[in-house]
Design brief:
Blueprint: E1 5-11, E2 16-22, E3 27-35, E4 43-46, E5 49-52, H1 58-71, E6 81-88, E7 99-100, H2 103-111, H3 120-133, E8 139-143, H4 153-156, H5 162-167, H6 177-190, E9 199-205, E10 209-215, E11 218-222, H7 244-252, H8 257-266, H9 269-274, H10 279-287, H11 291-315, E12 320-324, H12 325-330, H13 332-339, H14 343-346, H15 352-356, E13 363-364, E14 373-376, H16 381-395
Parallel strand pairs: 1-6, 6-8, 9-12, 12-14
Antiparallel strand pairs: 1-2, 2-3, 3-4, 4-5, 7-8, 9-10, 10-11, 13-14
Helix pairs in contact: 10-11, 11-13
The chain binds adenosine monophosphate.
Length: about 400
């Protein structure tokens, strides 16, 4: 019997999200999450079942997951399992594609910890535990940065001293690459065209948010940089700002580097502006006449519009602007405001009725005959990780 199942693991510092997919048709056999690992209140949500018990570490978490899977007849010892696909946030410039993990690959992912201190250590823990459980099975790393490694140097480099930048690997890497790859390809299919022929601006608007300019299937620019802090306004991150803000707060407010790191990553963005990071709540408050929520919405949309304009210039010709992730897929007012008044200049508009439709399918929301298509394409990072993993393992 050929093995057709792929387990996808997305390991965070205190959580593990997992899905088991059957690659014959991409169907989900199991979906679950372990959260608050290391706390007394940890819990495992496996489909409809919830287990509440202290789970000490990632090893205990994966053991609990494997018990739940076994209960459904989907145990990790199954010979139907073809591979484990791991989401790895930072692949630096070396990992341009999904990669089968061996000791050398793992060592390189570890060498990248200084540029991804919050994410890579958790990803490494997940890899170690899964490898120990099934040493015979291919374990594949799918990198958030990989899709962006095609960015030309003029987009990837910061205009700082080259020696300093190279010594410390300071450059723009970009993130959410798995989503940008999947959504840009899916958008081309929605247009009925080959991805190699179309130019797309992808707006991944979730709690984290990033934009990318994709020319003929290759990323040529993206809004996140050395870390996921650069670019759009996000739930709790500031996105772009004058780096001198940091010197100023150090000198004038006496804040430490760690305090400013927390400020910009955890207490800024929509949350910092109005006390809420959930776009649903911000839209509700705006409609109720709340001035702080309105201003937060306007700042968010203003930044988005600047990136749409910038990436139109980067691409020269745009075939589609595509919204995805929690906000992009669900918040019609954000989509409407992002392109409002841009019909003449950029050929962008949304049909109010199409924009109001709620659906989990990819769909066009621009009027018939629009110069540039505007679309909503739900992202599916787990399916993309599983697809890339299976494609790699299948080749071997
Ligand atoms: P993600 O990171 O892709 O899971 O996106 C999470 C974010 O999506 C949440 O913080 C919400 O702000 C946003 N979101 C989810 N559903 C809606 C909705 N119906 N309207 C507006 N925003 C939404």
């Amino acid at each position: 019997m050929t093995a057709t199942r792929v387990l996808v693991l997305n390991s965070g510092s205190s959580s593990v999200k997992y899905q088991l997919l059957d690659m014959r048709n991409g169907s989900r056999l199991a979906v679950g999450l372990v959260e608050r690992i290391g706390e007394q209140s940890s819990r495992l949500v496996h489909g409809e079942r919830v287990r509440t018990e202290p789970i000490a570490d990632h090893e205990a978490a994966l053991k609990a997951v494997s018990e739940e899977l076994a209960q459904d007849g989907l145990g990790l010892d199954s010979h139907e399992l073809a591979a484990v696909g791991h989401r790895v946030v930072h692949g630096g410039i070396r990992f341009t594609e999904p990669t089968v993990i061996d000791d050398d690959v793992l060592a390189e992912i570890e060498r990248l910890v200084p540029v991804a201190p919050l994410h890579n250590p958790a990803n490494i823990m997940g890899i170690r535990v899964a490898r120990a459980m099934r040493p015979d099975l291919p374990q594949v790393a799918v990198f958030d940065t990989a899709f962006h490694t095609t960015m030309p140097e003029h987009a990837a480099r910061y205009a700082i001293d080259v020696e300093t930048a190279d010594a410390h690997r300071v450059r723009r890497y970009g993130f959410h690459g798995t989503s940008h790859a999947y959504v840009s390809r899916r958008a081309a299919a929605l247009l009925g065209r080959d991805p190699r022929e179309v130019n797309v601006i992808v707006l991944h608007l979730g709690n984290g948010a990033s934009a990318s300019a994709v020319a003929g299937g290759r990323c040529v620019d993206t809004s996140m940089g050395l870390t996921p802090l650069e670019g759009l306004v996000m739930g709790t991150r500031s996105g772009d700002l004058d780096p001198a803000v940091i010197f100023h707060l150090t000198r004038v407010a006496g804040m430490s580097v760690d305090e400013i790191d927390t400020l910009l990553n955890k207490r800024s963005g929509l949350l910092g502006l109005c006390g809420d990071n959930d776009m649903r709540e911000i839209i509700r408050r705006t409609e109720a006449g709340d001035a702080a929520a309105r201003l937060a919405f306007e700042i968010y949309v203003h930044r988005l519009r600047k990136y749409i304009g910038a990436y139109t210039a980067v691409l020269g010709r745009v075939d589609a602007v595509v919204f995805t992730a929690g906000v992009g897929e669900n918040a019609a007012p954000v989509r409407e405001a992002a392109v409002a008044g841009l019909t003449e200049a950029l050929g962008l508009s949304v049909d109010p009725e199409l924009n109001a439709v709620r659906s989990s399918s990819p769909r066009l929301i621009s009027p018939d005959g629009a110069r540039v298509a505007v679309a909503v394409v739900p992202t599916d990072e787990e399916l993309e990780i599983a697809t890339q993993t299976y494609a790699l393992v299948g080749k071997k």
